[in-house]
Structure formats: structure tokens, C-alpha cells
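Before relying on records like the one below, remember that each one covers exactly one chain. Contacts with other chains, cofactors or solvent are not represented anywhere in the record.
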Amino acid sequence: MTVSGLLLFALAALYLIYQVWQAVGYLRAADDPRNQAFWQWAMGSESEREALVTAQRAACPGAPFILPSDGFVGLLYADPRGPYSASRPHQGIDIFSNAQPGVTPVYAAYDGYVSREAGWKSTLIQRVPQDPLDPTRQIWLYYTHMADRTGNDFIEEAFPPGTQEVFVPQGTLLGYTGDYNGASARTVWTHLHFSIVRDDGNGRYVNELEFNNTLDPSPYLGMALHYDCADGVVSCVASPECVP
């Protein structure tokens, strides 16, 4: 066999190995209840989708936060599934709405001070001076995707661009879920992205896009929301802490 023939054979073998590896991954994914739920949400009927919705307007027993919106908690904290990865996992939770953009309400998960940067089309951030699970520190609650695809926002009029430090009690209506995805060409389902962001120690929030700048929302919401520990439809649980 010539050198070029050997090279072609090696490339074909590597391609076959890759295809087998991909097939094994798909088979494993098919058995994962988290992925089965995603398929059900994507392909199911209205009633099948509704069966995946978590509606929890009161705080779970022993938890300080309320779930900020009703919906299917489809992408979890530390989720490595696309568009995320194992090296850049999801920094919060995505709550998908069983409705069109601008319909499903978003509420303040806790008492705190809401701000909206001048350039933010779909986003609010809320300062919580004392973390209810660690009163020695300040944390921030980040809410986004509250606009349609072209950037028309569904945020309440009380929070126009440039808003700074407006106090809101837990349960205050902040806006409605949308499908805005910035300048990205990738479309997204109607949802709320919610995350808990660390403080920089000087009274400012740090970059929410960095996973290590965020906190697992599970103990704050009393629900198993970490990818490594979640199982089935999200609901209140006695022990929300996750040890991956």
C-alpha cells in the first residue's frame, strides 16, 4: 500500500472511530432524563409541555428565594450541554415559557435594589445587600432575555434604561420573558435566564458570563438545580445541596 493509501486508510479509521463515539454519546443522551425532557419540550404537544412546567410562586420550605418565573427549567446550573460545554458550563438556570414572548411574568426572587444599565435591552440586575445564606457578603440577582428578538423590551416601565437602585420587595413584577439574544444569529426559545452573581468586594457585581463568578441557585430556591444532581421535573426538595 502506498503512503497516500495508508494516509487515507488512517483517516477513514479515525472518522469511523469518531462516528462510533458520537453514536455512543447519542445513545447515552437518549437515556438521560434531562435530555428526554428537552425532547419532550421541543417536540411535545401543549399538554406534554405543560407537564414539564414548574409553577412555584411561594418559596420552598426553608429556602429564601421564590422561583422568578413559571416554566420548564431546561438548562441547569453547571449544565455542559450546548450552547455550553464542560469547560464553559451554564452560569445559571434557564426557565422556558410555555407561551409566546411578552406573556409569562418575571418576579423579583428576593428583596433588593434593582438597576438597569443604560445599554441593557432585556436585562435587570438586583443587589441583595445581605446574602440570606451568608449575611457576611453581598450578592446580585441577574435576570435577562426580557425582550423580543428585535430588542423591544418586556421590562416594567418602572425600570427604564439607566435605572439605579430601585428597592423592590420579593414578588414584585419585573417584566415578562422573551427571546432576545443580542447580536447572536442563534435563536432561543422564550425564557428567563436567572443567575446569582458574586460581588467584587467593592460593591459591584462581577462578570456574570464567567462561571466561577456565580453561585449554585439550588439552596436559595430549595430545588435541585445543579446539572449533576437534578432529576426530572424541578420541584421543592428537602435537600437541595449538590455534591457533584
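The longest strand covers residues 191-198.
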